[in-house]
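Summary of Year 1 activities. Much of the first year was spent building the evaluation harness for sequence design. The harness presents a backbone, in tokenized form, and records the residue chosen at every position. We chose the following record to illustrate the format because it has been used consistently in internal testing since the harness was completed.
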């Protein structure tokens, strides 16, 4: 198994041409002497796509919910920051066609393999920077940012009139789901919001939230709780231990808990051109 030791110089100068570390090598690391980039998500997912893919079950929850809000059956959908393919694969189950883009060669390679392995025909995965998307103006019916940094202006450019701009992730301030307060020693969230039967919520926000791009109407915001389930509590503890450190690992080991709960939100706006 290849070593996970890497210098900060190597991280900073790696660019987007990153070779994935050997599958499973993320399991070998010294949690008390973490390597640089320990909590750098893009670096982690590009170096260990298999780790990110195993963890990213909340993306399935997000798209499953999204399918109850929008009918994609006649739509060409662009998934920006598609990573290992979790969001695109779920989108492809209902969309006419999905165009996936990312910048790291390792995750693009991983995602393409996964799409091929599953025999999916309606996804096209290419290199594409969110700040300079390789598509003509007014091409897509929907642009999705699932757990990915958005560029609203660039999304607006490639969307058709009335196209849907969709941004999805955790609710603000709860980036580490149910363990956010526990990890940071804070008390910002009522832990009840992470109970699976906690009610959904809905609100409207104005277009300033999407960098002021012209919209047909307000942005609709849907909040819901999503429970993700892993193979075993030991496996979940290993995954979160690698992503968030030893304190996170201890949480799941002590509770013998094989689920991870998220309070998620989906923001949808229709662009006006
Ligand atoms: C947290 S992952 C989300 C992956 C996927 N959408 C999902 O829901 O599982 C964020 C992704 O954004 C990608 N990313 C980082 N910078 C980017 C850029 N400039 N343009 C496009 N994608 C980028 C990362 O490589 C990573 O795969």
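For this record, the design step produced the sequence shown next.
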């Amino acid at each position: 198994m290849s070593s996970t030791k890497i210098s900060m110089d190597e991280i900073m100068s790696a660019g987007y041409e990153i070779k994935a570390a050997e599958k499973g090598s993320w399991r070998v690391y010294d949690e008390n002497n973490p390597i640089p980039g320990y909590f750098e998500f893009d670096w982690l997912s590009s170096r260990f796509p298999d780790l990110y893919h195993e963890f990213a079950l909340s993306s399935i929850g997000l798209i499953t919910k999204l399918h109850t809000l929008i009918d994609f059956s006649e739509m060409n959908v662009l998934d920006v920051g598609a990573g290992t393919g979790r969001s695109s694969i779920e989108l492809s189950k209902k969309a006419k066609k999905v165009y996936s883009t990312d910048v790291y060669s390792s995750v693009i390679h991983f995602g393409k393999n996964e799409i091929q392995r599953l025999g999916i025909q309606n996804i096209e995965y290419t290199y594409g920077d969110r700040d300079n998307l390789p598509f003509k103006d007014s091409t897509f019916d929907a642009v999705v940012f699932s757990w990915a940094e958005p560029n609203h202006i660039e999304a607006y450019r490639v969307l058709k009139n009335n196209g849907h701009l969709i941004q999805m992730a955790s609710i603000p301030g709860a980036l580490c789901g149910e363990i956010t307060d526990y990890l940071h020693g804070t008390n910002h969230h009522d832990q009840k919001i992470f109970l699976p039967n906690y009610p959904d919520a809905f609100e409207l926000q104005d277009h300033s939230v999407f960098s002021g791009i012209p919209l047909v109407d307000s942005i609709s915001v849907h909040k819901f709780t999503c429970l993700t389930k892993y193979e075993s509590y030991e496996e979940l503890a290993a995954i979160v231990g690698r992503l968030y450190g030893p304190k996170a690992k201890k949480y799941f080991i002590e509770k013998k808990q094989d689920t991870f709960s998220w309070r998620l939100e989906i923001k949808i706006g229709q662009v006006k051109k």
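The domain at 54-173+199-228+261-270 is CATH 3.40.50.150 (Rossmann fold). Quantitative recovery figures across the full test set are reported in Table 2.
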